[in-house]
Amino acid sequence: MKKKKPLTRSQNMARIKSKNTKPEIYIRKLLYKMGYRYRVNYSRLPGTPDIFILKYNTAIFVNGCFWHRHENCKIATFPKTHAEYWEKKFRRNVERDIKVREKLFEMDISVITIWECEINKMQRNEEYKEKYLKILKDRIERVFNYEEEDISVQMEIAEESMQ
Ligand SMILES: [Zn+2]
Q: 112 pairs with which residues across the strands?
């Protein structure tokens, strides 16, 4: 098998910054199949949610783990050079996310974050995907208010309690 050439830094940046990235489209298609209708890149709300489901007043952000600093995630590595630059940049991203979340909360909009690594896993693992989508559905429709924000963390807790 031929190895794929690694992307250059600028290609990488372009991929990260562009709207309608592949993971986003993957999730949108799933949500559509589940019967949800939504707006994308909804700029009328703080933070321009990637997906907004009006019926349930739910905003969904599809976050890259590196840029949004997903906790305890393998993808959220810390670059070894220019540490100060990166730290500042990351802090700004995280602070922005927190502010957006607070604003949406005040508007009684529920916020769901779907992480890049979770989407990767869904694409590889059908069983994980099924369980994930079940919790996602509960979250969107506000059937349960789960304690853990991350859906995959919530899944782990549910599995532990069953053993
Ligand atoms: Zn992650």
A: 60
* Residue 142: predicted pLDDT: 86
User: What is the bridge-based pairing of β-strands 110-115 and 58-63?
Assistant: parallel
C-beta separation of 93 from 69 below 8 A: yes
CA of 115 to the centre of ligand 1 (A): 5
Reported as a pLDDT band with limits 50, 70 and 90, residue 3 is low
Question: Whole-angstrom Cα distance, residue 77 to residue 2?
Answer: 27
All domains in the chain, ordered by first residue: 20-162 (3.40.960.10)
Cα 1 to middle of ligand 1, angstroms: 28
Helix 151-162 vs helix 116-124: crossing angle, to nearest 10? 60
Task: Render pLDDT for 66-89 as a digit per residue (tens, 0 to 9).
Answer: 999 999 999 999 998 999 999 999
Ligand 1 centroid to Cα of residue 114, in Å, is 9
Question: Per-residue pLDDT for 156 more than 80?
Answer: yes
Please tell me the distance between residue 129's alpha carbon and the centre of ligand 1 in angstroms. Answer: 15
Q: How far is the CA of 76 from the centre of ligand 1 (A)?
A: 7
Continuous H helices in the chain: 9-17, 22-33, 83-106, 116-124, 126-140, 151-162
